[in-house]
Design brief:
Interleukin 17 receptor E like; 44% strand; mainly beta; IL-17_rcpt_C/E_N; 334 residues; 3 domains; Immunoglobulin-like; interleukin-17 receptor activity; five-stranded antiparallel β-sheet; signal
Protein backbone atom coordinates (compact mmCIF):
# COMPACT_ATOMS: atom_id res chain seq x y z
CA UNK A 1 0.00 0.00 0.00
CA UNK A 2 1.33 3.46 -0.94
CA UNK A 3 2.22 6.01 1.76
CA UNK A 4 0.08 8.53 -0.16
CA UNK A 5 -3.04 6.83 1.25
CA UNK A 6 -2.58 8.97 4.39
CA UNK A 7 -2.88 12.56 3.20
CA UNK A 8 -2.90 14.85 6.24
CA UNK A 9 -2.90 14.76 10.05
CA UNK A 10 -4.27 17.85 11.82
CA UNK A 11 -4.00 18.48 15.59
CA UNK A 12 -5.66 21.15 17.74
CA UNK A 13 -6.68 21.70 21.36
CA UNK A 14 -10.11 22.59 22.69
CA UNK A 15 -11.99 22.84 25.99
CA UNK A 16 -14.59 20.14 26.62
CA UNK A 17 -17.22 20.84 29.29
CA UNK A 18 -19.86 18.50 30.74
CA UNK A 19 -22.43 19.22 33.49
CA UNK A 20 -21.07 16.51 35.81
CA UNK A 21 -17.30 16.55 35.18
CA UNK A 22 -16.74 20.25 34.51
CA UNK A 23 -14.24 21.43 31.89
CA UNK A 24 -11.06 19.74 30.69
CA UNK A 25 -8.52 20.30 27.94
CA UNK A 26 -8.65 17.84 25.01
CA UNK A 27 -6.71 17.16 21.82
CA UNK A 28 -8.62 16.98 18.53
CA UNK A 29 -7.19 14.61 15.90
CA UNK A 30 -8.38 14.84 12.30
CA UNK A 31 -7.08 12.92 9.31
CA UNK A 32 -7.53 12.95 5.56
CA UNK A 33 -7.25 9.54 3.84
CA UNK A 34 -7.62 8.17 0.31
CA UNK A 35 -9.81 5.06 0.40
CA UNK A 36 -8.22 1.76 -0.63
CA UNK A 37 -9.78 -1.67 -0.96
CA UNK A 38 -7.37 -3.12 1.62
CA UNK A 39 -7.91 -0.29 4.11
CA UNK A 40 -10.22 -1.34 6.96
CA UNK A 41 -9.75 1.68 9.22
CA UNK A 42 -7.39 4.13 10.90
CA UNK A 43 -5.69 4.21 14.29
CA UNK A 44 -4.44 7.35 16.06
CA UNK A 45 -2.18 7.16 19.14
CA UNK A 46 -1.03 9.97 21.43
CA UNK A 47 2.08 9.39 23.59
CA UNK A 48 3.26 11.67 26.39
CA UNK A 49 6.98 12.32 25.96
CA UNK A 50 7.71 12.44 29.69
CA UNK A 51 5.98 9.19 30.74
CA UNK A 52 5.59 7.29 27.45
CA UNK A 53 1.95 6.72 28.44
CA UNK A 54 -0.10 6.09 25.29
CA UNK A 55 -3.77 6.56 24.38
CA UNK A 56 -5.06 4.99 21.17
CA UNK A 57 -8.31 5.20 19.23
CA UNK A 58 -9.40 3.47 16.03
CA UNK A 59 -12.05 4.19 13.41
CA UNK A 60 -13.44 1.34 11.31
CA UNK A 61 -14.67 1.73 7.74
CA UNK A 62 -17.59 -0.42 6.49
CA UNK A 63 -16.66 -2.89 3.74
CA UNK A 64 -19.42 -1.71 1.40
CA UNK A 65 -18.22 1.90 1.72
CA UNK A 66 -14.61 0.89 0.89
CA UNK A 67 -15.64 -0.90 -2.31
CA UNK A 68 -17.84 1.91 -3.62
CA UNK A 69 -15.49 4.79 -2.83
CA UNK A 70 -12.00 3.45 -3.68
CA UNK A 71 -9.73 6.37 -4.64
CA UNK A 72 -11.92 9.01 -3.01
CA UNK A 73 -10.68 11.21 -0.17
CA UNK A 74 -12.33 10.91 3.24
CA UNK A 75 -12.12 13.16 6.33
CA UNK A 76 -11.89 11.23 9.62
CA UNK A 77 -12.51 12.81 13.06
CA UNK A 78 -11.36 10.87 16.12
CA UNK A 79 -12.83 11.22 19.61
CA UNK A 80 -10.97 13.72 21.78
CA UNK A 81 -7.85 12.73 23.75
CA UNK A 82 -7.64 14.19 27.25
CA UNK A 83 -4.46 16.27 27.69
CA UNK A 84 -3.00 18.80 30.13
CA UNK A 85 -1.58 22.28 29.68
CA UNK A 86 2.04 22.49 28.42
CA UNK A 87 2.17 18.75 27.69
CA UNK A 88 4.51 17.48 24.95
CA UNK A 89 2.89 14.78 22.78
CA UNK A 90 3.96 12.43 20.01
CA UNK A 91 1.00 11.57 17.76
CA UNK A 92 0.97 8.78 15.16
CA UNK A 93 -1.59 7.89 12.50
CA UNK A 94 -1.55 4.38 11.01
CA UNK A 95 -3.71 2.21 8.81
CA UNK A 96 -5.74 -0.79 9.99
CA UNK A 97 -4.29 -3.28 9.27
CA UNK A 98 -0.83 -1.77 9.77
CA UNK A 99 1.29 -1.59 6.61
CA UNK A 100 5.04 -1.05 6.95
CA UNK A 101 6.00 2.57 6.33
CA UNK A 102 2.41 3.80 5.92
CA UNK A 103 2.31 6.18 8.88
CA UNK A 104 2.18 9.89 9.74
CA UNK A 105 3.94 11.31 12.83
CA UNK A 106 3.60 14.68 14.55
CA UNK A 107 4.99 16.26 17.72
CA UNK A 108 2.58 18.59 19.48
CA UNK A 109 2.97 20.98 22.40
CA UNK A 110 -0.19 21.92 24.28
CA UNK A 111 -0.13 25.67 24.84
CA UNK A 112 0.80 26.73 28.36
CA UNK A 113 -1.21 29.90 28.83
CA UNK A 114 0.31 33.20 29.96
CA UNK A 115 2.66 31.87 32.65
CA UNK A 116 6.24 32.13 31.36
CA UNK A 117 9.53 30.92 32.83
CA UNK A 118 13.22 30.36 32.23
CA UNK A 119 15.64 27.85 33.77
CA UNK A 120 18.76 29.04 35.59
CA UNK A 121 20.89 25.88 35.44
CA UNK A 122 23.80 27.41 37.35
CA UNK A 123 21.64 28.25 40.37
CA UNK A 124 19.35 25.24 39.79
CA UNK A 125 16.24 27.39 39.90
CA UNK A 126 13.20 28.01 37.71
CA UNK A 127 12.36 31.70 37.36
CA UNK A 128 8.60 32.12 36.84
CA UNK A 129 7.14 35.30 35.40
CA UNK A 130 3.68 35.70 36.91
CA UNK A 131 1.07 37.24 34.56
CA UNK A 132 -0.44 40.63 35.28
CA UNK A 133 -3.41 40.35 37.64
CA UNK A 134 -6.95 40.52 36.38
CA UNK A 135 -8.81 42.68 38.88
CA UNK A 136 -7.56 42.27 42.47
CA UNK A 137 -6.71 38.56 42.29
CA UNK A 138 -3.41 37.27 43.72
CA UNK A 139 -1.50 34.44 42.05
CA UNK A 140 0.13 31.21 43.28
CA UNK A 141 3.13 29.39 41.77
CA UNK A 142 4.86 26.21 42.92
CA UNK A 143 6.97 23.28 41.74
CA UNK A 144 5.41 19.82 41.80
CA UNK A 145 6.16 16.27 40.68
CA UNK A 146 3.52 15.05 38.25
CA UNK A 147 2.62 11.49 39.14
CA UNK A 148 -1.02 10.46 39.63
CA UNK A 149 -1.48 13.99 40.93
CA UNK A 150 1.03 16.82 41.00
CA UNK A 151 2.75 16.37 44.38
CA UNK A 152 4.45 19.24 46.18
CA UNK A 153 8.15 19.69 45.38
CA UNK A 154 8.38 22.92 47.36
CA UNK A 155 6.18 25.48 49.07
CA UNK A 156 3.71 27.47 46.99
CA UNK A 157 4.56 31.16 46.63
CA UNK A 158 1.80 33.75 46.66
CA UNK A 159 2.29 36.87 44.55
CA UNK A 160 -0.07 39.66 45.57
CA UNK A 161 -1.88 41.78 43.02
CA UNK A 162 0.05 44.92 44.07
CA UNK A 163 3.48 43.21 44.23
CA UNK A 164 6.32 45.28 42.73
CA UNK A 165 8.10 42.24 41.25
CA UNK A 166 6.26 39.47 39.45
CA UNK A 167 9.26 37.15 39.06
CA UNK A 168 9.54 34.21 41.48
CA UNK A 169 12.63 32.00 41.88
CA UNK A 170 11.79 28.35 42.64
CA UNK A 171 14.83 26.14 43.45
CA UNK A 172 14.93 22.49 42.41
CA UNK A 173 17.25 19.64 43.40
CA UNK A 174 17.18 17.54 40.21
CA UNK A 175 16.02 18.13 36.64
CA UNK A 176 13.31 15.49 36.13
CA UNK A 177 10.84 15.09 33.25
CA UNK A 178 7.91 15.09 35.71
CA UNK A 179 9.08 18.24 37.55
CA UNK A 180 6.51 20.89 36.64
CA UNK A 181 5.84 24.55 37.28
CA UNK A 182 2.24 25.14 38.29
CA UNK A 183 0.41 28.46 38.53
CA UNK A 184 -3.15 29.51 39.30
CA UNK A 185 -5.11 32.61 40.36
CA UNK A 186 -6.10 32.85 44.03
CA UNK A 187 -9.80 32.42 43.29
CA UNK A 188 -12.26 29.55 43.78
CA UNK A 189 -12.16 26.77 41.14
CA UNK A 190 -9.31 28.47 39.25
CA UNK A 191 -7.83 26.61 36.28
CA UNK A 192 -4.22 25.60 36.99
CA UNK A 193 -1.50 25.93 34.37
CA UNK A 194 1.25 23.29 34.34
CA UNK A 195 4.51 23.59 32.43
CA UNK A 196 7.24 20.94 32.64
CA UNK A 197 10.62 22.44 31.58
CA UNK A 198 12.49 19.10 31.48
CA UNK A 199 9.70 16.97 30.00
CA UNK A 200 11.76 15.71 27.05
CA UNK A 201 14.87 14.95 29.18
CA UNK A 202 14.03 11.32 29.99
CA UNK A 203 17.62 9.97 29.98
CA UNK A 204 17.94 10.57 33.73
CA UNK A 205 15.19 7.97 34.34
CA UNK A 206 17.17 5.11 32.79
CA UNK A 207 20.22 5.92 34.92
CA UNK A 208 18.42 5.32 38.25
CA UNK A 209 20.19 1.96 38.70
CA UNK A 210 21.55 0.76 42.06
CA UNK A 211 23.61 -2.27 43.02
CA UNK A 212 23.92 -3.54 46.60
CA UNK A 213 27.13 -5.62 47.03
CA UNK A 214 25.99 -7.18 50.30
CA UNK A 215 22.75 -8.66 48.97
CA UNK A 216 23.96 -8.68 45.32
CA UNK A 217 20.65 -7.09 44.30
CA UNK A 218 20.34 -4.95 41.16
CA UNK A 219 17.46 -2.47 41.29
CA UNK A 220 15.96 0.33 39.21
CA UNK A 221 13.52 2.89 40.56
CA UNK A 222 12.64 5.92 38.40
CA UNK A 223 11.76 9.22 40.02
CA UNK A 224 8.89 9.72 37.54
CA UNK A 225 6.15 7.38 36.31
CA UNK A 226 7.16 5.35 33.27
CA UNK A 227 4.98 3.13 31.09
CA UNK A 228 6.79 0.13 29.63
CA UNK A 229 8.83 -2.93 30.62
CA UNK A 230 12.27 -3.69 32.07
CA UNK A 231 14.31 -6.82 31.38
CA UNK A 232 17.81 -8.20 31.78
CA UNK A 233 19.71 -8.63 28.54
CA UNK A 234 23.06 -10.04 27.43
CA UNK A 235 25.33 -7.86 25.27
CA UNK A 236 28.30 -9.82 23.83
CA UNK A 237 30.13 -6.73 22.55
CA UNK A 238 29.94 -3.15 21.22
CA UNK A 239 27.47 -2.57 18.43
CA UNK A 240 25.73 -5.91 19.04
CA UNK A 241 22.04 -6.08 19.85
CA UNK A 242 21.34 -6.77 23.53
CA UNK A 243 19.32 -10.01 23.69
CA UNK A 244 16.72 -10.29 26.44
CA UNK A 245 17.06 -13.12 28.97
CA UNK A 246 14.05 -15.36 29.29
CA UNK A 247 11.68 -14.80 32.23
CA UNK A 248 13.41 -11.53 33.26
CA UNK A 249 10.81 -9.08 31.89
CA UNK A 250 9.06 -6.93 34.52
CA UNK A 251 6.53 -4.06 34.20
CA UNK A 252 8.14 -0.65 34.78
CA UNK A 253 5.88 0.18 37.70
CA UNK A 254 7.74 1.53 40.69
CA UNK A 255 10.83 -0.32 41.89
CA UNK A 256 12.14 -3.26 39.85
CA UNK A 257 14.49 -5.63 41.73
CA UNK A 258 16.68 -8.52 40.53
CA UNK A 259 18.25 -10.48 43.44
CA UNK A 260 21.65 -12.23 43.41
CA UNK A 261 23.19 -10.53 40.38
CA UNK A 262 26.81 -11.09 39.40
CA UNK A 263 28.74 -8.00 38.20
CA UNK A 264 29.43 -9.08 34.63
CA UNK A 265 30.13 -6.32 32.07
CA UNK A 266 27.90 -8.04 29.47
CA UNK A 267 24.86 -8.04 31.75
CA UNK A 268 22.62 -5.03 31.02
CA UNK A 269 19.16 -3.62 31.66
CA UNK A 270 16.84 -2.99 28.72
CA UNK A 271 13.97 -0.49 29.00
CA UNK A 272 11.22 -0.87 26.39
CA UNK A 273 8.59 1.86 25.86
CA UNK A 274 6.23 2.89 23.08
CA UNK A 275 8.89 5.27 21.78
CA UNK A 276 11.64 2.63 21.51
CA UNK A 277 14.12 1.20 23.98
CA UNK A 278 17.19 2.13 26.03
CA UNK A 279 19.98 -0.14 27.24
CA UNK A 280 22.13 0.50 30.32
CA UNK A 281 25.11 -1.72 31.24
CA UNK A 282 25.95 -0.71 34.83
CA UNK A 283 28.94 -3.06 35.24
CA UNK A 284 30.88 -1.96 32.16
CA UNK A 285 32.24 1.13 33.92
CA UNK A 286 33.17 -0.75 37.11
CA UNK A 287 31.35 1.80 39.23
CA UNK A 288 29.86 -0.98 41.38
CA UNK A 289 32.19 -3.17 43.51
CA UNK A 290 32.13 -6.93 43.01
CA UNK A 291 30.61 -8.95 45.89
CA UNK A 292 32.99 -10.79 48.24
CA UNK A 293 31.64 -14.20 47.16
CA UNK A 294 30.40 -14.32 43.59
CA UNK A 295 27.01 -15.99 43.26
CA UNK A 296 24.33 -15.90 40.62
CA UNK A 297 20.60 -16.44 40.21
CA UNK A 298 19.32 -18.68 37.44
CA UNK A 299 15.93 -17.81 35.95
CA UNK A 300 13.80 -20.82 35.11
CA UNK A 301 10.23 -21.18 33.93
CA UNK A 302 8.77 -21.55 37.38
CA UNK A 303 11.35 -20.60 39.99
CA UNK A 304 14.62 -18.87 40.82
CA UNK A 305 17.59 -20.62 42.40
CA UNK A 306 20.88 -19.23 43.71
CA UNK A 307 24.05 -21.16 42.92
CA UNK A 308 27.78 -20.51 43.36
CA UNK A 309 29.17 -18.79 40.29
CA UNK A 310 30.71 -21.35 37.99
CA UNK A 311 30.90 -22.26 34.33
CA UNK A 312 27.59 -24.06 34.72
CA UNK A 313 25.87 -20.75 35.46
CA UNK A 314 27.71 -18.78 32.77
CA UNK A 315 26.30 -19.64 29.33
CA UNK A 316 28.65 -20.99 26.72
CA UNK A 317 28.99 -18.89 23.54
CA UNK A 318 26.33 -21.01 21.87
CA UNK A 319 23.92 -20.16 24.69
CA UNK A 320 24.40 -16.36 24.89
CA UNK A 321 21.45 -15.96 24.38
CA UNK A 322 19.34 -18.56 22.62
CA UNK A 323 17.07 -17.39 19.82
CA UNK A 324 15.16 -20.67 19.75
CA UNK A 325 13.08 -21.51 22.84
CA UNK A 326 14.86 -23.51 25.53
CA UNK A 327 13.23 -25.51 28.38
CA UNK A 328 15.40 -23.67 30.92
CA UNK A 329 17.75 -20.73 30.31
CA UNK A 330 20.27 -19.65 32.92
CA UNK A 331 21.35 -16.05 33.13
CA UNK A 332 25.03 -15.14 32.75
CA UNK A 333 26.01 -15.27 36.44
CA UNK A 334 23.59 -12.61 37.77
Amino acid sequence: MSRAVLDTLTLSTAMKCTPHDGCSLVLRVRASVTLHERLRGLEACSTSLHSQETQCQSVRMPRASRRLQVGQQLQVHFSCFKVSVAQHLYVTLRTVPHFCGVQLDRQYHVEGGKLSYRVDERRKAILAQVPEPSGSSDYYVRLCLRRFTCEDAGAAVRVTANSASRTVSLPYSQALPCLCLEGWPASPDAVRIQMCPFEADTEVLWDAIHYHPGSQALSWEPACPVSGRVSLCWCPGPGVSCQELQHSSRPAQGRVLYPLVDTQPQLCLKFSTNLGFRVRCPFQQRRFPAPPTSRCACVTEGSRSSLPASKRCRPAPSLQPQVTPQPTLQSPSW
